[in-house]
Amino acid sequence: MTWIVLLLLVGILLFFVELFFIPGTTVIGFIGVFFVAAGIFYAYSQYGRSAGHISLLISLTLVISLIIYGAKSNAWGKLSHKHSLEGKANVIDENAVNVGDTGKAVSDIKPIGKAMFNNQYFEVKSHGEYIDHGKSVEVINVSGNKIIVKEVKA
């Protein structure tokens, strides 16, 4: 009888963990359902119909109660992250860099890298050409947050 109780409790615990703490993996949930089913099957096969019905009723009651409790206790709300990111990547001030400005590549541009214009660092892109760091570059297009550059040949 202790095996039945142990299988049912472990199965229900694993199902609860899958449902509220690590959702999406499904492996833990399947193992939990398997343990519960094994406990119920074992109760039917070893102790007869009445013990099987009792274990089935207790398992269903516990699973339904845990689902209701988890939903009402706001388990998802306690686990979720409530803050949002406010930052933006490569925000370019309209007057910071303009077409025709020259600067210096501070990293290799293959075809994306970093360059300095007007004492500010920017992420830049070339038209597929590789530009070694330290080379002079010129802005040929500014579109939104993208700066397209080409190497200035000396």
DSSP helix fraction: 40-55%
Q: What is the structural class? A: alpha+beta
Q: Let me know the average pLDDT.
A: 86
In angstroms, what separates the terminal alpha carbons? 88 Å
Question: Topology as H/E string?
Answer: HHHHEEEEE
Count of helical stretches: 4
In total, the number of domains comes to 2
Radius of gyration: 31 Å
Question: Any descriptors?
Answer:
single chain, 154 residues, alpha+beta, OB fold (Dihydrolipoamide Acetyltransferase, E2P), 2 domains, 5-stranded mixed beta barrel, 4 helices, 5 strands, 45% helix, rod-shaped
Please, could you describe this protein's structure?
The structure is a single chain. It is built from four helices and five strands; from the N terminus they run ααααβββββ. By secondary structure, the protein is of the alpha+beta class. The protein folds into two domains: 76 residues; 50 residues, Nucleic acid-binding proteins (OB fold (Dihydrolipoamide Acetyltransferase, E2P), Beta Barrel). It has a five-stranded mixed beta barrel. A hairpin with a 2-residue loop joins strand 4 and strand 5. Helix 1 packs antiparallel against helix 2, helix 1 runs parallel beside helix 3 and helix 2 packs antiparallel against helix 3. It is rod-shaped. The chain starts with a helix and ends with a strand. The model has no long low-confidence stretch (mean pLDDT 86).
Topology:
Elements: H1 2-20, H2 27-47, H3 49-72, H4 75-79, E1 102-105, E2 112-117, E3 120-126, E4 136-143, E5 146-151
Parallel strand pairs: 3-5
Antiparallel strand pairs: 1-2, 1-4, 2-3, 4-5
Helix pairs in contact: 1-2, 1-3, 2-3
